[in-house]
Amino acid sequence: MNPELEYQLMKSQASELRAAAARHRQVREAQRANKSERRSVFGKRRPA
């Protein structure tokens, strides 16, 4: 395979991996936020 083509392919794959990692981080942060919100809601409802 052409070395320049291989280099471009590697750059593209690295870019896709970085984007996937960023999406994964956003999902994990959203899940953490939802868990903390749920705890506070349940905490408020129990005493009532």
TrEMBL record:
Ranges for the region named Disordered are 20-48
Protein name per its UniProtKB record: Uncharacterized protein
The organism that produces this protein has a lineage beginning with: Bacteria, Bacillati, Actinomycetota, Actinomycetes, Streptosporangiales
Origin organism is Nonomuraea cavernae
Query: Could you tell me the superkingdom of the organism this chain comes from?
Result: Bacteria
User: Which residues lie in Basic and acidic residues bias regions?
Assistant: 27-40
